[in-house]
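Usage example:
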Amino acid sequence: MGMTTTDERAVAVIMVGGPTKGTRFRPLSLNIPKPLFPLAGQPMVHHPISACKRIPNLVQIYLVGFYEEREFALYVSSISNELRVPVRYLKEDKPHGSAGGLYNFRDLIMEDNPSHIFLLNCDVCCSFPLPEMLEAHKRYGGMGTILVIKVSPDTAYQFGELVADANTNELLHYTEKPETFVSDRINCGVYVFTPEIFTAIQGVSTQRKDRANLRRQSSFEALQSATRSLPAEFVRLDQDILSPLAGKKQLYTYETMDFWEQIKTPGMSLKCSGLYLSLFRYTSPRLLTEGDGTKSATIIGDVYIHPSAKVHPTAKIGPNVSISANARVGAGVRLINCIILDDVEIKENAVVIHSIVGWKCSIGRWSRVQAEGDHNAKLGVTILGEAVNVEDEVVVINCIVLPNKTLNVSVQQEIIL
Amino acid sequence: MKALILVGGFGTRLRPLTLSFPKPLVDFANKPMILHQIEALKATGVTEVVLAISYQPEVMLNFLKDFESKLGIKITCSQETEPLGTAGPLALARDILADKSGEPFFVLNSDVISEYPLKEMIAFHKSHRGEASMLVTKVDEPSKYGVVVTEESTGKVERYVEKPKIFVGNKINAGIYLLNPSVLDRIELKPTSIEKEIFPKIVSENQLYAMVLPGYWMDIGQPKDYITGLRLYLDSLRMKSPSMLASGAHIIGNVLVDESAEISDGCLIGPDVAIGPGCVIESGVRLSQSTIMRGVRIKEHACISSSIIGWHSTVGRWARVENMTILGEGVHVCDEIYSNGGVVLPHKEIKASILKPEIIM
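Running the assembly step on the lines above writes:
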């Protein structure tokens, strides 16, 4: 009968953060912007970007952050080529808040006249079920749909807790990091909006400007409201948009049953690298390596090895290991739950467990680099910064070592500057 | 005359300060460490200084252009692409050091501060006519260093022992040398240790002479020694140019304050404090045995002792910072916080007290 609407274009915006904000990702962030740190062999931001590629009629991806443009120039150029979708990095000139940032670039975003705008946070690790979210969003007919996940009640307080209607999935209530228990469903930091979101954000700005003007006339108003110190164009998604609009039939939720984590620390990046490796087994199994110890190394579980890396056939690798470009893994080496970055040399019979070995490190013969493996503990995953040299037979347990150090004696439970 | 300053590598012992600047540019007594040495060399008549570095030449070169024009001395960087030890860099800079004049050249270690009696050293070198002269200093724990045993009357070095296990003598190699160009013929362009390979040979040929350093000497390559070093430096300044030190009712002992720093009422500053350019010290602040670097703001009623506060940091009201706390660049210590030996990486905000020495990343 009639034509189906074909002009339903989508634009995705991925918030990547900035350098001074991410001190929790040290020491790895001393050498590389967090969004470019490799998980499962690909830069962190690559995972949401390739998920966006599955959105039907996706025409543009914007990366928004506070890093200098040159830090992302090479990456966006190569990923645009590789995935055949335009990816562009936009630098925020000043903090606008999580929603204000989106609003700040609305002209660019609306250039392609998208019917839907995805907003993702780069440091979220999940399966990004974006096409499914879009379908659900269209059914709901609201202004926005939020990806949510159920977590254990005792951890929920760390996030934005939501309450949704069991039948309609409408967002009824939203509160950010509450002190008392509200709900075990939390905000995953992945959203899809219609362009009405810009009107909503502008509304918040205007309202705040009006209140500021009013306040000059009323000293009682001046005593109230935590937002009195916020500039008008600083709009936070959680407190200023989601909370107020909950229960007004504008926002809905879509629940994911897959994994979800935030990648705030190096320890978590190791865990998330493993989650993405296990995801590869379903989505892109050809990226994973196999081997049985005859012609190539013995591989256990999910392992990624960059094609240029050299691994001796007598080595045993896995589970949950990522080996980056030009790394060399010698005879008899055992690697378990670790990330081995570019140009690392691991000499014969060394053992690396629950660790991240930085670019250009050298791990000596029979040396042992390991940790307890608690991804949340400060020293639960051993991190070796760039160009750290661990000499033969040295044991390094539960340590963080800053770049360019040489370890010639064994050490435990220490941060080495 | 020419000089070479061995700057070396990453300065990891002075982290977190060296995470923001290469070590030679870290300030000591309100001046980049290397400037102390360059000024001493210039005063002796050195016309060209080579900095032997292995790291971050771009950052260095920008600063050096500044010093070059202000001081009227030529400064170049000689960058090693692989580690060359303590002698190799001399071979690398051979073309500059072995010029046609045949004059001896100085070699200094960038971590060392002292009174730099370089004119006396030149006279000493001329008098003995040996190939090499070295300054030595007396220390309490010689086994950490290279120990030098000399003939009392001439200063001729009879033995040179690196980190001796038993007591051999208490004069150690102060890391300041004056060498004839012929020494360069002994050094190949490969990783070589001047202490372990070159000097012992020169000693065996009776060509090395040592002069005892009058005055203070300190290796300020790590925070504890940096703080002690400031005390020694300011003591020496008191004797040589007391007008450079601050004075007033609010000053105790030796205190150096940059002219652009502001100090409010009710403060008590000293002893052994250096306050850098653009610092703001609000009222009621107590500072002792500490270095406050460029652009720092110390808020009211704070109390800081035996610590180093890195560039552009702020210390909150009523904060107490002590016991070798080292704040990197741009650290913000909130009001009322207590830090006992915290070592804080750049751009952190300290919202919780640090009760025992710990590294905050």
